[in-house]
Amino acid sequence: MRIVARRAFLNLLRNPEASLLQIIMLTVLALIVGIIFFDVDDSIQIGIQNRYGAFFFMTMNMVFSNMSAVQVFMKERVIFLHESANGFYRVSCYFLSKIFCDILPLRIFPTTMFAVITYWMIGLRAEATKFFIYLLNLLMTTLSAALLAFCVGARISTISVAMAIIPLCFILMLIFGGLFVNITSLPTWLQWLKWISIFRYSLNTLSINEFSGMVFVDGNMTVNGEDYLISQGIPTGTWGLWQNQLALFIMQIILLTLAYIQLRTVPKLK
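Above: the chain's sequence. Below: its structure in token form.
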């Protein structure tokens, strides 16, 4: 595994364009989000709307910016099939080395930079615990989206087909995230799709983390953050927050397992 991981890492160093592009893209997007929503206030109308708008924009960036992960197993597919069929290494060694060498430089590091820039520019709650929950949620959102792309890329050999399937999956998750459509108004046989929406879990976590304990004021009117969350059908409290992260974690385990199974069952020719 060490040799396979070293080769993957060297390939990354020889072709740093993807890493640099991912870092530059997320840094620019972070600055754009920070400028648009800079130093949000605590008014009822503007404060709530701008915060939720920022959360949606950030979640969408975290999801759609990971479409490139679909190519991780496709770039060296022919080499992998040949070497694996001839017993050069186990499928698990190749799988784990590719995952590790992609997630750290292309997913975790750029997302951390994005979180640091946006959190303080927007002016969200100046509390260490709140910030680290915010960072954790963005990382979990990024990893969930990337693992879904890995899962698709492990089975499909044509990049154009894979790049058409991934945005379709993300758009379906976006629709059933609860922002554009009231889930309760949908037919019962469609409502279950909300449970596989990365957007739903990410937006709920960001909202609970920020709005809990806040009071928004407009003149003589006040609105508690918890009341707003309840009005949006978002569960409050500690378990209300962490159940979303647990759901993302379970989703990651399932997608990781499926990606491995699909890579292992790909027909190999010597």
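The mean pLDDT is 87.
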